[in-house]
């Protein structure tokens, strides 16, 4: 992989070997002295850096905090999270025609999505910087995770959601865990603009994936996939396929791979190809990859049934695009129909996911059919959220219940007919 850019020498501003660096101008900052989300000098995205990138021997325990050696703290506000299953899906594997297919089901986290991995770290950092009012913009899952982890940490939470565009399960979670929910007349990108303004004015502590500490927690998805796959198969996967919205996971996985390569834990030829999938109605990352751009152009009008990835301005694009390119991956857009079909395919293997999650499998099918993914590849698809997050989409994708009379004879008659 090209261009590691990870300095091994901790600058004077570092705390316990941890600091922040701007990915654009390289300026370095103390990690917890002040609240900052982007570079003071150029407004570029910040990245957490460590004096000692970890190796496999540094990890012990289970879940996100198994990877404490790769994180800024030893422990966090925990429910606990991580240690999600890596499912085999033999029928789907055969149907798609790849040598090996595994599904990393992040819907099995405490609030039903991968966001919990970022929040356990993010809320711990909020404690370290001494704030008590947490906020996020969300397509739903971030709000559910923030509400739960905020509640766990005894902190106030505020979430901004695009009105009418968030799946029912997610709003219910945010509500019951005690978040104050603001339904914004606008899409997710508008919500994020507003919450960034509020954070800039010091009103709230921002826990969207613009916050570099969130991505540290999400990095552990990659660490877990590599360890689980290696323990079962004796090698690392050739490719990791994931749904892309704000491109936080893509950025986090790339950072995971860079750090492992920097420490010598992963050889250059062992680095999996990061492959992003977006819904056709919200695909600025795919557009940027297709055109060779360094950043995305904002899509003002976005639409997809996969509401979790209904995002037109992926803030982590400057971190994620180089990751897709450096790992020789790609990005692809899929239709809502293909997403629903993939949701059914996964459900047929007993793996229940929400629509956005199924995008990874839909994307793999499309790339396999196009010959971009080879038949001899070992692939991991990431499924990011649980089926119950979006019960309406699940009910629409599934079969309707059949009304029957309240007698055994009536039921037998119905089944026989
Ligand atoms: C279920 C689900 N999948 C995928 C995504 C997109 O993740 P990212 O912003 O890391 O690209 C989200 C984010 O909202 C999500 O909730
Ligand atoms: Zn900068």
Task: Please render the helix and strand layout as text.
Layout: E1 18-22, E2 28-29, E3 46-50, E4 86-88, H1 90-96, E5 100-105, H2 115-129, E6 133-137, H3 141-152, E7 156-162, H4 168-176, E8 180-184, H5 188-200, E9 205-206, H6 212-233, E10 239-243, H7 248-263, E11 273-279, H8 284-291, H9 317-326, E12 330-334, H10 336-347, H11 355-369, E13 378-383, H12 391-397, H13 408-416
Parallel strand pairs: 5-13, 6-7, 6-9, 7-8, 10-11, 10-13, 11-12
Antiparallel strand pairs: 1-2, 1-3, 4-5
Helix pairs in contact: 2-3, 2-6, 3-4, 6-7, 7-9, 10-11
Structure characterization notes:
The protein is of the alpha/beta class. The chain has 2 domains: 86-109 and 212-397, Rossmann fold; 115-206, Rossmann fold (3-Layer(aba) Sandwich). Helices cover 37% and strands 15% of the residues. The chain has 13 helices and 13 strands. The chain has helices spanning 90-96, 115-129, 141-152, 168-176, 188-200, 212-233, 248-263, 284-291, 317-326, 336-347, 355-369, 391-397, 408-416, and strands spanning 18-22, 28-29, 46-50, 86-88, 100-105, 133-137, 156-162, 180-184, 205-206, 239-243, 273-279, 330-334, 378-383. The strands form 3 sheets. Strands 4-5-13-10-11-12 form a 6-stranded mixed β-sheet, with helices on both faces. Strands 8-7-6-9 form a 4-stranded parallel β-sheet. A 3-stranded antiparallel β-sheet has the order 2-1-3. α3 (141-152) packs parallel to α4 (168-176), α6 crosses α7 and α7 crosses α9 (317-326). The model has no long low-confidence stretch (mean pLDDT 97). It binds pyridoxal-5'-phosphate and zinc ion (ZN).
